[in-house]
Amino acid sequence: MNYKPNKSDRYLLTASEMGRADKAAVVAGVPAIDLMAAAGKAVADAVLERWSRCSVLVLCGPGNNGGDGFVVAKLLKAADWPVRLAFLGSVEKLSPEAAHFYQAWQGEVEDYSVNVLDQSDLVIDAMFGAGLTRPLEGKARDMVDAIIARDIPVCAIDVPSGLDGSTGAALGLVAPAELTVTFFRKKPGHLLLPGRGLCGELVVADIGIPETVLNELNLQAWENSPELWYRNYPWPRTDGHKFHRGHALIYGGESMTGASRLTARGAMRIGAGLVTLAVPIKAWAVYATAMTSVMVAKLEVSQEQEDFEELLLDPRHNAIAVGPGAGLAGFERIRTRKIVVTALTTNHTTVLDADALSAFSEDPQTLFDAINGPCVMTPHEGEFARLFPEINKSHPDDKLTRARMAAKLSGAVVVLKGADTVIASPDGRAIINANAPAYLATGGSGDVLAGFIVGLLAQGMLPFDAASAAVWLHGEVGNDVGIGLIAEDLPEHLPKVLSAFQKHYFLAQKSGK
Ligand SMILES: NC(=O)C1=CN([C@@H]2O[C@H](COP(=O)(O)OP(=O)(O)OC[C@H]3O[C@@H](n4cnc5c(N)ncnc54)[C@H](OP(=O)(O)O)[C@@H]3O)[C@@H](O)[C@H]2O)[C@@H](O)CC1
Ligand SMILES: Nc1ncnc2c1ncn2[C@@H]1O[C@H](COP(=O)(O)OP(=O)(O)O)[C@@H](O)[C@H]1O
Ligand SMILES: [K+]
């Protein structure tokens, strides 16, 4: 049987959580000195695997990141590589472990100035890791500046120096790495931008921290992956019929009709048993001629809200989506707001996207007050800024925290989109998605994502799982289609991706493979 990663492999640890893991490991009987030795060995092994013998410069900082660096230097020297080492700090202030490995390095310790970069083919960045609290200054900054200017390849230990591993923010200047070796588990900053782009290839090394320490940490963040939610995926039942697969009701506006049609198509493809687009009568013919498997319901002039409310009385309409193409101009804005409030106050499971969010930019609290039932909102950064200006002000460089705060404030699962989409639940859980390719940055791709989410909700998946699954599948389809992707491709290529996903996670599980 192939090794199957499990949910705990996907945990993400902040700097303080990593510090607690480290302490718990020591309490569990693993000496700190062994952890540092293992960390350094993992880095040296990764370097030996990827580079052929060359002149290496190890730049050691004042903390334990520097301690790892002393270990790497010794191991590369033992492998007969030409190694130089420069140290920024004072020996008296080193931790006992780092001091031990400082002593164990029997080579020269050079002055920490940019001249040490001369004739170096590879830099091991052991300057700052999880302990960095402020932007690099003075000699450290000059060094990074010179590394960048000379374009020397870098292998970073834990995180590239200058990067905040908990948020992915550059605290100031950062030395971009070709390879980053981190320990135990990934950190949020390895996945969030700009951090992800600065790490290069990422290796996660086992340094002997027992898995049991995870139980003590009450972790609430994961990297998105099917291990997190495939057990709750609504696979079609052998004895099922279409009503078992739910009925998604999607509001479609008058002018941008393509948007909600993409949403409807996405909901259909991801397996909703039935999908109805409810549209103002003026636009009905456009929708009706364009849709086949999707049904189109008419909302009569001046009583759109009442007609929509009536559709909501049908208990089979179990998941609602409002927003794509709903309209924001003049009276359309008022209508969009009414449709949203109607869906929310009747406690329907609802997805709010695009115009359904922007329609409340003047008074976001009205929207938050209306959210009492299961709700997913899917803002891109622009929409997020309209609804949550205060959060953006208080935590400008921390997407994970911004999404979590927004979820708590609004009561909805928040999908804060982008290349590093964060899915956050009001209860504090959060997932960072890292499989989405840049090809998804195309008009309408978010509309399809809203359709994937509402389609999974219609099939009974819970909001946090449905949002996470939809975002991951959206990314997978993006990769499958590749360059040249347009939004229409996303629903059409989903079956291929779903088949592969089903084969791997459902059929394999059933057959005990
Ligand atoms: N399980 C584990 O956790 C394991 C962790 N391991 C390794 O330990 C690393 C974490 O070590 P760490 O906590 O000592 O922090 P690190 O990043 O080396 O630097 C902190 C020092 O820098 C200083 N300082 C901060 N900012 C500064 C600035 N801008 N400019 C100048 N100075 C600045 C700060 O001083 P202070 O802020 O107190 O003035 C402090 O002295 C981790 O990334 C991993 O590589 C492994 O050994 C294996 C086990
Ligand atoms: N550079 C990128 N890399 C990966 N995914 C991206 C990138 N830019 C946007 N996306 C994804 O594409 C989708 C765009 O959604 P959105 O901005 O709402 O567009 P639209 O309203 O045109 O549908 C989101 O799922 C977002 O996460
Ligand atoms: K580093």
What's this, in brief?
GO terms for molecular function: ADP-dependent NAD(P)H-hydrate dehydratase activity; ATP binding; metal ion binding; NAD(P)HX epimerase activity. This protein has helices spanning 15-27, 32-50, 64-78, 96-104, 138-150, 188-191, 195-199, 214-217, 257-269, 284-290, 304-313, 331-345, 354-358, 364-370, 381-387, 389-394, 399-410, 445-458, 463-481, 489-510, and strands at residues 56-60, 83-87, 122-126, 154-157, 179-183, 201-205, 221-223, 247-251, 274-280, 295-299, 317-322, 350-352, 375-377, 413-416, 422-424, 430-432.
Please count the helical segments: 20
- Given the C-alpha coordinates, what overall shape results? elongated
How many domain units? 2
Instruction: Return the CATH class of the largest domain.
Output: Alpha Beta
- The CATH architecture of the largest domain would be 3-Layer(aba) Sandwich
Estimate what percentage of residues fall within beta strands. 5-15%
**Neighbour order of strands in the largest sheet:** 7-16-15-14-13-12-11-8-9-10
Helix content: 40-55%
* Molecules bound to protein: ligand NPW, adenosine-5'-diphosphate, potassium ion
Low-confidence stretches: none
Residue-averaged pLDDT: 96
Under CATH, the topology of the largest domain can be stated as UDP-N-acetylmuramoyl-L-alanine:D-glutamate ligase
Query: How many individual β-strands?
Result: 16
- In CATH, the homologous superfamily of the largest domain goes by the name Ribokinase
The secondary-structure class comes to alpha/beta
The biggest beta sheet is recorded as:
10 strands, mixed
Span of the ends, CA to CA: 6 Å
Give the radius of gyration. 26 Å
